[in-house]
Amino acid sequence: MVSPSPFSTMYQKTIGITTQREGDIVDVTPELRTAVKESGVKDGLANIFVTGSTAAVTTIEYEPGVLSDLMRALSIIAPDTVSYAHDSRWGDGNGRSHVRASIVGPSLSVPVRSGEPCLGTWQQVVLLELDVRSGRTRTVVISILP
């Protein structure tokens, strides 16, 4: 869905990303590149935001080894072997998911230069599925400002 506003030069696009399980890491760099092209912005800023409190957005080299390392590091920071107050209150078992998502964060800003996102050679933008419940469709909002 594209939402141009007659009162603003901001471009915004919403995409749905389907995940299968906790620990899925989805490369959203192609969607970001497409949104930047569609926006027509040559120099500016792109913001990538995932709605929901059990998913996150970050950059990483999209390579199996480092993806595994990231998930291992998050499991050390917020392990599934400890008790979470959230789980006691709500009984949904995803306290660790909320903690992990909060640490990584729901958004990322990427400069746009010459009509392209300014990313390093080995740097991709990724969505992290951190919820213990499987089969989710995540909403990602990409906003581009000149």
Describe this structure in words.
With 146 residues, the protein is α+β, with helices and mostly antiparallel strands. The chain has a single domain (11-145), classed as Sandwich (Jelly Rolls), CATH 2.60.120.460. The chain contains 4 helices and 8 strands. Strand 5 (107-113) and strand 6 form a beta hairpin. The longest helix has 14 residues, at 64-77. The radius of gyration is 16 Å and the shape is elongated. The mean pLDDT is 94.
Helix/strand layout:
Elements: E1 11-19, E2 25-27, H1 29-39, E3 44-50, E4 55-60, H2 64-77, H3 85-90, H4 95-104, E5 107-113, E6 116-117, E7 124-129, E8 136-145
Class from helix and strand fractions: alpha+beta
CA-atom Rg in angstroms:
16 Å
Written as H for each helix and E for each strand, in order along the chain, the element string is EEHEEHHHEEEE
| Uncertain regions spanning at least 5 consecutive residues | none
Fill in the keyword field for this structure.
single chain, alpha+beta, five-stranded antiparallel β-sheet, three-stranded antiparallel β-sheet, 4 helices
Brief write-up:
This protein has 146 residues and is α+β, with helices and mostly antiparallel strands. It is 28% helix and 34% strand. A hairpin with a 2-residue loop joins strand 5 (107-113) and strand 6 (116-117).
